[in-house]
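Repro case for the chain-ordering regression, as requested:
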Amino acid sequence: MGSKRQFRIWRGDETGGDLKDYTVEVNEGEVVLDIIHRLQATEAPDLACRWNCKAGKCGSCSMEINGKPRLGCMTRMSTFEESETVTVTPLRTFPVIRDLVTDVSFNYEKARETPAFAPPADVAPGDYRMQQVDVERSQEFRKCIECFLCQNVCHVIRDHEENKPAFSGPRFFIRAAELDMHPLDTRTDRKEYAQAEMGLGYCNITKCCTEVCPEHIKITDNGIIPMKERAVDRRYDPLVRLGSKIFRR
Ligand code: SF4
Ligand code: F3S
Ligand code: FES
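-- result from build under test --
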């Protein structure tokens, strides 16, 4: 037997909008995305929301629920008190298209800017056998579903629109870290590149990105901090720097 619960959902578009109140039936086991679907099926058929898998794997249903960046399909209604009003708003860091749908193309631009995996030219297909240990080293980073919750929460761009051109953001720092761990990705020095071109230096390790990652990737501890340490080593230790030039992996 369901109960009636209070919701406030941001409705609007790029010209502006407002929170609107709804009273919606909630049943046991439901998630926030179920409630949005119920609203679409009843009193708000034009409520815009992006979703796809309803299984926490496509990264589409990113939204802010009571001010916290979350996946709508993975946020159980039992997280909240029955008396609590649940407020759902679009990701704040990206421009609104309509209602809960934002324009996340910033992230695709940053993805395009990141140099692609490039093995040495003299390694022919089939020549190299990847070791299991190398596969496992970057496994954690490959779990990323590109929900961009980490990008949304990072204060470097959330509070400073002007930083966007110079800052790729946590999702792309772990992409760089992942490629850095690949034994055949030898054409780009990922640490130097992250420092020089991706704005790694803007990150002051607040770890908000790690806190919101639905895949529980230790973005800061396992990705960003080791990249920063190695970048610093290379920049300020002349021997490390020289060695890295002579013995390039
Ligand atoms: Fe989402 Fe985590 Fe990937 Fe960031 S690192 S885009 S929070 S899955
Ligand atoms: Fe931003 Fe994460 Fe660094 S939230 S400041 S990228 S630790
Ligand atoms: Fe795919 Fe939520 S709908 S992650």
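Ordering looks correct now. The beta strands are 3-13, 16-26, 62-65, 68-71, 86-89, 96-98, 101-102.
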